[in-house]
TrEMBL record, chain A:
Transmembrane segments: 31-50, 56-74, 106-127, 133-154, 166-183, 189-206, 281-300, 306-328, 358-374, 380-398
GO CC terms, sorted: membrane
Protein name: ABC-2 type transport system permease protein
Pfam family, one: EcsB
The entry's keywords: Membrane, Transmembrane, Transmembrane helix
Keyword Transmembrane set for record: yes
The keyword Transport is assigned to this record: no
Cited InterPro entries: EcsB_ABC
Automatic annotation (TrEMBL), chain B:
Keyword ATP-binding included in the entry's annotation: yes
Domain ABC transporter: residue ranges: 5-236
InterPro entries recorded: AAA+_ATPase, ABC_transporter-like_ATP-bd, ABC_Transporter_VariousFunc, P-loop_NTPase
A GO MF label: ATP binding
Protein name: ABC-2 type transport system ATP-binding protein
UniProt xrefs under Pfam families: ABC_tran (PF00005)
Gene3D superfamilies reported in the protein's UniProt record: P-loop containing nucleotide triphosphate hydrolases
């Protein structure tokens, strides 16, 4: 029986990759790897020039915290558990340790590889800064923190109360940031003492919380969320059978849907506006825009490649946001209400285009903000104008025709 | 009086070589309620899908308000509201937003929409849940949302598939009261259900579907007669049992 639980895990991982393969190859064909390779080359060029001429006022500590904290603290867990397991797998809870430890290993190794990669990038910067801890020791401590972080994240998943779980997770991220800051800046004994003390205190905190032996519901919920994210991501490149959406209220964006007038021709606009800002698609677009603003600010501030590097970062993120937003065409494609409502499909097409255009313009403007603030001061006006023009051409001239063709093609497939 | 729904010799199914429905013919007049009953797999949901236009008949014709779906899709669709067997809600909309979307889709005047939405939320005891998402509603509540949306559209024809599943007693009562009300106002109702006692009490005529064929059709007396009861004898449940329990040996009608 023990074997069967392990082989079930293997079968599920295998099935996931088999199902994902066609979408991955669609993604590879879409040109994303090329864009990323270009972006990586640009980043590598700026990285080496940064190492060559390290500015005296370089924020070593902040960069260290920003680079290492997320990679140490973020510990996702794929378990491939699903609702039906409450009926069929729950009776085997006694043997589930083996199942879960396989998941912990699977995710832990990937996380460890990611954190080592970040160390590889950060350490050459660190050694030029004021850090006193030996670089090799820093890497060792980061690896230890990563392993402890994965263990801590597992303990948090086991917690009975959702509020405690969320609160302690936020606390862990903050304390990790403080520890990383102390390690890369303070004297080694201070950094190590703060870190050790934090570990002990967290250990005591986790011990005091009531926990499930195996948090079935939490794991199933997390798995469902992760799966939805994959679906949303892949649906930007291929038609992925959609499952139920992951919903967030996002009250701060409600004004957009509220501004839609009550009339029959707006029914689909009303629906698609909600579909965009409340589902995972809106979440990804939002995060991507924020990341784009951050990267844009870094590139613009450093005047990367005479401002043209910043322009390239801007166009890259505008393009990426567009790729994600295109997944909106897949929303409600197979809904029965599309056929029952007394509304022609033409209105649905127009609604998708209107919502897509509004969201795209808004994201493009937000992405442009750091450039508009930081580029003119350095005299890079032309680069800023080129950015704005590129966005206008992409969103208002190229985009509508592309979306129309995509939806027409989907309609013919249906 | 012109029928709201006119189904004539409809044969249909998922594959042209293997029809599920055979020669279905019936009409539904304004202010009338027909109960569609049959065993699991008899073809009830397939019949409803054909009426909705989600499936195309192999042969035969379906008219709503005198038009086919092909002739005038907007008129055909705006004449009907649908309550599916399994609630089909948009995850990203709250209860109130579903009502607003339906109001917009069916072109319900805004002032009338506000009034109807408030009334329906009260009548179905859903006011405390008006801002809730589908994921936070029980199955019965989701079903109530479906029913409220259909009632908000105020169409001439209601297609209702197993409406009582998951509803609490108050919900069932509210639904039946509303159906009586819209029927009195002239709406036609086509309802599929396994709760035969309720169907018998509220419906004017009945269709007994068995293996995709109508084996009885008409008033309670006519269905009982088809089942071999003498005049004034038998209930819908007894008639249904006789008609279907032995494989429907009474044969088809029409």
């Amino acid at each position: 029986m023990e074997r069967s639980v392990e082989s079930l895990w293997k079968a599920r991982v295998g099935a996931f990759w088999r199902e994902s393969m066609p979408y991955i190859s669609d993604m590879l064909r879409s040109g994303v790897p090329f864009v990323f390779a270009m972006a990586a080359l640009t980043a590598l060029a700026s990285y080496t020039s940064l190492l060559r001429d390290m500015p005296a006022d370089f924020p070593f500590t902040i960069v260290g915290i920003a680079a290492l904290t997320p990679f140490i603290s973020y510990n996702p867990l794929r378990t491939w558990l699903r609702e039906a397991d409450l009926v069929f797998l729950m009776p085997l809870e006694g043997q589930m340790d083996r199942y879960i430890s396989k998941s912990l290993r699977y995710n832990g190794l990937a996380g460890l590889a990611a954190v080592l990669f970040v160390c590889l990038i950060y350490i050459p910067i660190y050694v030029k800064g004021p850090g006193q801890l030996h670089a090799a020791l820093l890497v060792g401590v980061v690896i230890a923190l990563k392993l402890l972080g994965a263990y801590a994240a597992w303990q948090e998943r086991r917690m009975v109360w959702n509020g405690s779980r969320r609160g302690i997770r936020v606390l862990r991220w903050l304390v990790t940031a403080v520890c990383v800051g102390a390690l890369v800046q303070s004297e080694p004994w201070i950094g190590l003492t703060i870190t050790l003390l934090s570990i002990v205190l967290f250990g005591l905190l986790y011990r005091s919380m009531s926990k499930f032996r195996l948090p079935w519901q939490t794991l199933i919920r997390e798995e469902r969320k992760t799966k939805r994210r994959y679906v949303v991501f892949f649906s930007a490149f291929a038609d992925v059978p959609s499952e139920t959406a992951n919903i967030a209220r996002r009250g701060y964006l409600a004004w957009m849907a509220k501004s839609i007038a009550y009339k029959q021709s707006n029914a689909f606009v009303y629906l698609y506006a909600h579909s965009l800002y409340r589902t995972e698609l809106g979440g990804i677009t939002l995060r991507l825009t924020l990341l784009g603003m951050f990267c844009g600010a870094l590139a613009a501030e450093s005047g990367l490649a005479l401002g043209w590097g910043a322009a390239a970062v801007y166009v890259l993120f505008v393009w990426l946001v567009g790729v994600q937003l295109a997944a909106l065409t897949q929303a409600h494609r197979h809904s029965v209400w599309r056929h029952v409502y007394p509304l022609p499909d033409r209105l649905r097409f127009e609604a998708v285009q209107r919502v897509d255009r509004s969201a795209y313009v808004l994201c493009a403007i937000l992405l442009l903000v750091p450039h508009a603030i930081l580029l003119p001061g350095q005299g890079y006006i032309a680069q800023l104008v080129v950015n704005a023009l590129a966005a206008v051409v992409l969103i208002l001239l190229v985009r509508p025709g592309r979306l129309r063709r995509k939806m027409q093609l989907d309609l013919e497939e249906d | 009086m012109n029928p709201v729904l006119d189904v004539q010799r409809v044969t249909g199914g998922y594959s042209p070589r293997k029809p599920v429905l055979h020669e279905l013919s019936f009409t539904l007049a304004p202010g009338e309620m027909i109960g569609l009953i049959g065993l699991n797999g008899a073809g009830k949901s397939t019949a409803i899908k054909h009426i909705l236009g989600l499936m195309q008949p192999h042969t035969g014709e379906i008219r709503i308000q005198g038009t086919t779906l092909a002739e005038d899709p907007e008129r055909y669709r705006s004449a009907l509201a649908y309550v599916p067997e399994t609630p089909l809600l948009f995850d990203e909309l709250t209860v109130e937003e579903h009502l607003r979307l339906t109001g917009m889709a069916y072109g319900v005047d805004q002032a009338r929409y506000e009034q109807l939405a408030t009334d329906l939320l009260g009548e179905f005891y859903m006011k405390p849940k008006r801002g809730a998402f589908a994921a936070h509603l029980s199955k019965g509540m989701r079903q109530k949302v479906m029913i409220m949306n259909a009632l908000l559209a105020r169409p001439p024809l209601y297609i209702i598939d197993e409406p009582f599943l998951g509803l609490d007693p108050l919900g069932i009562r509210s639904l039946l009261d509303k159906l009586v009300e819209v029927k009195r106002e002239g709406a036609a109702i086509f309802m599929s259900s396994h709760i035969l006692s309720t169907v018998e009490t509220y419906c004017d005529r009945f269709i007994v579907l068995h293996h995709g064929r109508m084996i009885a059709y008409g008033t309670l007396a006519e269905v009982c007669a088809a089942a071999g009861f003498r005049e004034g004898e038998g209930s819908l449940e007894e008639a249904f049992y006789r008609l279907t329990a032995d494989g429907g040996s009474n044969g088809t009608i029409g």
